[in-house]
Amino acid sequence: MENAYIGRNAENIIQNTIIDQVEVVETLRQHFKIEGKLKNSAGGGIYGEKSDGRINFDCGHYIDMNIKSFTAAFNQLARTTIPKFCEDFHINEDDKTELQNLIIAKSQNRANMLFPMEVQEKWGEFFAENAKQLVKWGFSSKPSREILVLFNRKTNSVKIYAMRDILRKINLNVTFTKGGVNIGDCISFQRKGGNGVHSKEIPKNSLQHPGNNVQLKLKPLKFIEEFSQHLLSEYAIQTSE
């Protein structure tokens, strides 16, 4: 079987298929207590940086969709520069400098732990105190009227979760790994990495190199396993020969 939607992005696939799923839309309408009837679906665009699409109802209410497609073990939730990350999470100048140095050290030797033993107590406190806000940064802008849509491109299956349930139920325990920090079993914080094929003129040990951004990543299969009891709805996308 060949996926009929190869070459089209995940947002368009979900926007074009979800409105034909009568039972799915009805489940969402009841869950969010929307009285109107389905009107249409559209791209997220101006509606919010975490919104990849929107389901509109004729009463004026809507549901924002954060859409993530995957075939591999990880999917990026959020990415930013170190200065912007430090600004958003109120990290002082000394700790900002330390984080920059840690990222650069990792870029020079990927075998290094991003957070060596001698700094884990301090940074462990930071991640423990900010774990919930970090998860919200990765997933959501308006959790009261949002859903997470996970699209497995290998199986053409779509699973849908209420954003409020994610933020309430997700495991926030912090553990250190060679690559960075795990939040629970399905989210990781790490250096962006990559070979920078579009930034060859920038040294890999420069803070200007995009590989030295920081990112939050989702392990979709781990997430699906952890949230099996909180699945809001699901459907399969039909394929053609």
Descriptive account of the structure:
It is built from seven helices and eleven strands. It has helices at 10-18, 22-31, 82-88, 93-108, 117-139, 163-169, 220-226; strands spanning 38-43, 53-57, 62-70, 75-80, 146-152, 157-162, 174-176, 180-183, 187-191, 214-218, 233-236. A six-stranded mixed beta sheet has the order 1-2-3-5-6-11. Strands 4-10-9-8-7 form a five-stranded antiparallel beta sheet. It is elongated. With 241 residues, the chain is α+β, with helices and mostly antiparallel strands. Mean pLDDT is 89; it is low at 1-8.
Tell me the strand order in the biggest sheet: 1-2-3-5-6-11
What is the N-to-C order of secondary-structure elements (H for helix, E for strand)? Answer: HHEEEEHHHEEHEEEEHE
Mean pLDDT score, rounded? 89
Report the sheet with the most strands, covering strand number, pairing sense and barrel closure.
6 strands, mixed
SS-derived structural category: alpha+beta
Radius of gyration: 19 Å
Number of DSSP strand runs: 11
Shape descriptor reads: elongated
- The portion of residues forming beta strands comes to 15-25%
Gap between N and C termini:
5 Å
Helix run count? 7
Helical content class: 25-40%
